[in-house]
Amino acid sequence: MERVGILRMPLGNLQSVWNALHVSGFDPEYVDEQSDFDHLTHLIIPGVGHFKAVMDHLVSKGLPDKITRFAQSGRPTLGICVGMQLLGKSSNEGGVNSAGLGLVDAVVTRLPDDGQVLPHVGWSTVDLKRDHPVTQGLKQGRDYYFVHSYGMKAGSEDIVIGTTTYGSDFVSIVGKGNVVGFQFHPEKSQSNGLHLITNFALWDGQC
Amino acid sequence: MLKKRIIPIQLLNNGRLVKSIDFGNFRDVGDPVKSSSVYNSQYADELMLLNVSREKRSIADLLQIIVKISEVSFMPLAIGGGISSPDDAALLIRNGADKIVVNSVAYRDLNVITETSNRFGAQAVIVGIDVRWDADLDDYRLYSRCGSAAENVGLEQHIARVVAAGAGEIMVQSIDRDGSMQGFDLDAISRAMTASPTPVIGAGGSGNYESLKDAFITTGVSALACGSLFNFSDSNPLRAKAYLSNHGLNFKKV
C-alpha cells in the first residue's frame, strides 16, 4: 500500500493536500525533520510563501539532504507551487538569488508584469507538451488553479511536461525521472486536480 | 488568459444556510456542507461562505464548518463574516480558507487587511463593500455590519484605501438588489472596476443566466457571485456556464 508523506511547511493550508489524497482513497501522513522517510513510498512538498523563506526554513531543519536522498532513491517526489519551484536550481524572488534543491535543471524568475496583474491568481490552461505517467488520462488544454508571481524556466526541453501562458510562457508541470512538480494547486483544481494527485500516488517513479 | 468566474455565495446563520432579501428575511436553504459538495461536482469556480448571524459576530461557527467543507470541496474557498483581527484571518486560512472576506472592519482598522496580505499574499484578502443607492445623496451609500450601519465614505475613496492597504480583490454587493433576482447593479460594478486596479466581484441580484450575461458583457467584470439563482431555481453553475460560453464568455475547461 502507498505510504504518501506530506512535508510539513511553515505557512499555508496543508489540510487541503491531505484531504485531496484522502478523498482519492489514500492514507497520507504528515512528515517533518523528525520523521523517518524510509517507510514512505511517495513524498509531497507543498509550499506557499517566499522561495527564500521556505528554503531557509528547510535548511534550518536539515531537510534539503533528507529530501534529496529520498528523491535519489528513485521514489516518486512531488513539489506543489513553491514546492515545485524549490526543485529547481535557483530563484531570484525578491531580487536575491537563492539556491534551490537542484533536482531539476531549471531556474525561477518573476513573471512579466507589463499589462498583467501579479500575482497570477485564477484558472489558467495547461498545455501538455509530452506524455508522462502522472498526466495520463488528462485531456489537453484543461484549466487549473494558480496562485503565484514567479515561474519556472527549464534548462532543457525534455523536462517540460506542461506549460502555461500568463504574460509569457512558464513551466506549469515539470518532470525529471521520479521527480515531478506542479505550479498550480491540484488540491484546488477539482476533478482534474484529484486525477493528477491519484496518478502521482499510484506512480512507481518510472517514466 | 484568466477565465471568468462564477462564485456561489452561501450565507451561514447559526450553522444553517440561509438566503436573504434586502439583507434580511432569512429563509433556510439547507446544509452548508452538503451544498458545498454539490457545488464542487457542478464545477463552480470558487465558493464563498459568509456568516450573517447577527447574534454571533465571531469566527467560531466558520471555523467549525470550513474544516468539514474542505473535506468535500476542492476549489478555492473564501470565508468571511465577523473577522475582526489578523489572528482571526490567519486561523481561518490555516484551517482551510484560501481567501478571507472582510467588510465592517475595513472601515475601522486597515491593519487586518495589511497584515493578512503581507503574511499570505494579496490574493488572500477580499474586501466586501455593501452599497445601497441613496436618492438624497444622489450616490451610493456604503454600509457595514450586514447592511445596518451607514458609513461616511464614498465608494471610490474606500476602494482606494483598502487597495492601498493590501486588498487583492473587491466584492461590491448591492443591498437593494439582494435576493431580488432582478439582475446585478451594473453601475455599481462598473464604478468599482474603474476605481480598483485589482479584480472585482459583482454580487447581489443574480436572477437568471441573462442577468449574468448582461453583467459579464456590459462591465467586463472578472467574477460574479450568486445566491438566489442557485439556491432557489433549477439552475446551477454548470448550466450557467454552458449558456454563457455560447455567448462568447470564457470559463475554465474541465
TrEMBL record, chain A:
InterPro entries according to UniProt: Class_I_gatase-like, GATASE, Imidazole-glycPsynth_HisH
Compartmental location: Cytoplasm
Coiled-coil residues: none
Function: IGPS catalyzes the conversion of PRFAR and glutamine to IGP, AICAR and glutamate. The HisH subunit catalyzes the hydrolysis of glutamine to glutamate and ammonia as part of the synthesis of IGP and AICAR. The resulting ammonia molecule is channeled to the active site of HisF.
UniProt entry tagged with the keyword Transferase: yes
BP terms from Gene Ontology: L-histidine biosynthetic process
Main subcellular location of this protein, as a coarse class: cytoplasm
Record keywords: Amino-acid biosynthesis, Cytoplasm, Glutamine amidotransferase, Histidine biosynthesis, Hydrolase, Lyase, Transferase
Pathway: Amino-acid biosynthesis; L-histidine biosynthesis; L-histidine from 5-phospho-alpha-D-ribose 1-diphosphate: step 5/9
EC number, UniProt record: 4.3.2.10, 3.5.1.2
Reaction equation(s) it catalyzes: L-glutamine + H2O = L-glutamate + NH4(+); 5-[(5-phospho-1-deoxy-D-ribulos-1-ylimino)methylamino]-1-(5-phospho-beta-D-ribosyl)imidazole-4-carboxamide + L-glutamine = D-erythro-1-(imidazol-4-yl)glycerol 3-phosphate + 5-amino-1-(5-phospho-beta-D-ribosyl)imidazole-4-carboxamide + L-glutamate + H(+)
Domain Glutamine amidotransferase as annotated: residue spans: 41-200
Gene expressing this chain: hisH
Keyword Transferase: yes
Subunit structure and binding partners: Heterodimer of HisH and HisF.
Listed GO CC annotations: cytoplasm
Active site: 81, 185, 187
MF terms in GO: glutaminase activity; imidazoleglycerol-phosphate synthase activity; lyase activity
The protein's name: Imidazole glycerol phosphate synthase subunit HisH
UniProtKB/TrEMBL annotation, chain B:
Claim: Amino-acid biosynthesis is one of the keywords in the record: yes
Broad enzyme group: lyase
InterPro entries named among the record's database cross-references: Aldolase_TIM (IPR013785), His_biosynth (IPR006062), HisF (IPR004651), IGPS_HisA/HisF (IPR050064), RibuloseP-bd_barrel (IPR011060)
Pathway listed: Amino-acid biosynthesis; L-histidine biosynthesis; L-histidine from 5-phospho-alpha-D-ribose 1-diphosphate: step 5/9
Gene3D superfamilies: Aldolase class I
Enzyme Commission no: 4.3.2.10
Reactions catalysed according to its record: 5-[(5-phospho-1-deoxy-D-ribulos-1-ylimino)methylamino]-1-(5-phospho-beta-D-ribosyl)imidazole-4-carboxamide + L-glutamine = D-erythro-1-(imidazol-4-yl)glycerol 3-phosphate + 5-amino-1-(5-phospho-beta-D-ribosyl)imidazole-4-carboxamide + L-glutamate + H(+)
Source superkingdom: Bacteria
Keyword Lyase: yes
Keyword line: Amino-acid biosynthesis, Histidine biosynthesis, Lyase
Entry GO MF terms: imidazoleglycerol-phosphate synthase activity; lyase activity
GO terms (BP aspect): L-histidine biosynthetic process
Role: IGPS catalyzes the conversion of PRFAR and glutamine to IGP, AICAR and glutamate. The HisF subunit catalyzes the cyclization activity that produces IGP and AICAR from PRFAR using the ammonia provided by the HisH subunit.
Similarity remark: Belongs to the HisA/HisF family.
Assembly mode: Heterodimer of HisH and HisF.
Protein name in UniProt: Imidazole glycerol phosphate synthase subunit HisF
Upper classification of the organism: Bacteria, Pseudomonadati, Pseudomonadota, Alphaproteobacteria, Hyphomicrobiales
